[in-house]
Amino acid sequence: MSRPGERRRAARILACCALLTLAASVAVVLLAVVEAGPLIVLSGLVGIVGLAVGLWWLVARRGALRVCGAVLAVGAPAGVLVHYIGVGVWIHALVALGLDGVAVFFGWGAVRATGKAYVMRGRAAPPPRRPVLIMNPKSGGAKVGRFGLVERAEQLGAQVHLLDTRAGTDVEALARTAVADGADLLGVAGGDGTQALVAAVAAEHDLPFLVISAGTRNHFAMDLGLDRADPVRCLDALTDGEELRVDLGSVNGRPFVNTVSFGVYADIVQRPEYRAAKTETALGLLPELLEEASGRVDATAGQKRLVGQQAVLVSNNPYATQDPLAGGRRPGLDRGKLGVIGLRVENAAQAADLAVRGERAPGLTVQTARRVEITAGADTLPVAVDGEALALSPPVVCTVRRHALRVLVPRIRPGSVAPSSPLNWRWITALALGRAR
After folding, report:
1. For residue 316, what are the CA distances in angstroms to 166, 291, 405?
2. pLDDT by residue (tens digit) across 320-351?
């Protein structure tokens, strides 16, 4: 049996298990209703609503209302549990919740099993003769030193420049100097922001670019199919590599390889205390940022107008929409399109709706465009470009240059997996019955 056939069979088995487990959960709930009456279902719904309202007040309000939100977020599910214990159905509730969790586990397993495991393929590339690599020794918890990247790169004939993080080295100027001195490849071991700056220089001079996964999250490396657990393997491209043509984003002329964020997240990232205390800073700023109309942005994505958005995320190629707010993976980096996610949530009910319905909720917009324009009622607009805090003058225009970047990657690398479907129970049912495409 072919590998796709094996995956399809495994996906169908997992889908059947998901449906059977979900049916068992429904049966347990019905048994509890028979024993204690329909009010237990109503009390459960009240608990969910109370939890949603409490979490919204906790995030979006200050003072006494925030305290009430914390109490409600804890007290609502606790009250439901006390009620269930009182009527003797708490075991039913725990079993039903456990079965729901197992059903979701099987459901996502079915989705992953039908996903396409792929490795982007390009053309064979000869080894570079004068590669120059720029490495940030602080990036990713000092991965450069821990993995011996400098020594390995020099063994392979590369010239290495270590960034002086205290002096604030101009990375772009360093890359341009390397090109002027005859470099025939530029590479970076560092975060995505540094990757983007050097990638733009490589694209400008039509030179291959080497990505070394020495950052913290390494989103760009992940979507290229590189090994994020062992950045040393990225250096194999210097001797056994192939060249990919991928897209490069631009925001008001500044390059980006992953995302540009506007609105709430961009405002928070601007604060100097954010790096040392992310959670505390976010909780302290969210109430006024969510309430203030002055902090909202408008976006024009293609022909669609998004008004009064609390957050807008623009990505170099769209992320898979299964969980757009969590980022996930980009199935491709060469489609010549920007991914656009807009978020507008006004109250606890809309927040709960978003949590339940995901991208189908009216407060969330997910689409693609070749050009995105952001405007706001201010002289400068906070922007987070690949996680780096900037302030740009509106209108801020995001575009994408298709196939602008030549990326040199190892011929042998882990690759990536693109999910083929969201966690949609109608689709999972069709899969279990052998009717899903």
Report:
1. 30, 29, 12
2. 754 444 447 787 899 999 999 988 877 766 76
